[in-house]
Amino acid sequence: MGQANLAIFSNLVHIGADPALIGFINRPTEAAPHTLANIQETEYYSVNHIHPGIYEKAHQTSAKYPEHISEFEAVGLTPLFRPGISAPFVEESHIQYLLKLEEVIPIKLNGTFLVVGSLQQAFIPEKIMEEDGYLSIEKANSLCSLGINGYYETKFLDKLPYAKP
Ligand SMILES: Cc1cc2nc3c(=O)[nH]c(=O)nc-3n(C[C@H](O)[C@H](O)[C@H](O)COP(=O)(O)O)c2cc1C
User: Fold this and answer.
1) What is the arithmetic mean of pLDDT over 17-34?
2) What is the CATH number for 57?
3) Any domain includes 146
4) What angle do CA 145, 161, 164 make, to 5 degrees?
5) Among 37, 54, 84, 117, which has the minimal tally of Cβ within 10 Å of its Cβ?
6) Structural domain boundaries, residue 52
């Protein structure tokens, strides 16, 4: 088994619901080579929400560690391996999901990539699930970020019905 790789990513986007697809933007390979190479090699990768208890460690994963160093060890987060799943999760994270690589779309304009994965499994605390399937991520204390240095807590404001003309 190779070295477990971990990095913080904020440019995540919902691509579609059926099949459930989630994309993220990966910087040019010269700047951020390891995450994309690992995903292309192993096909499976996990996304783990950050919360106030781990955001500083999560931030530290963005440092340019050499390839042979595991960011898990370097920053003090725990890799969680589940039976039958090759990709590690972050044990300390409250919302975790597994994606399978479907497509890497180069964006010629600036050398970045849209990396598209399909949702395979999600590990979500029961207390945040509502009867209609809505997930109250603020109950898991999930954070948002702005740019590469600002972190925000999430506070529920409202839920609105499907808008009609
Ligand atoms: C808050 C924050 C958000 C980030 N979001 C992204 C992102 O969406 N895409 C990206 O390519 N890098 C992003 N980065 C930078 C990566 O974490 C960094 O380049 C990391 O070293 C990539 O790992 P790699 O070198 O193992 O591929 C972000 C950094 C921070 C601090």
Assistant:
1) 94
2) 2.30.110.10
3) no
4) 110
5) 84
6) 12-124
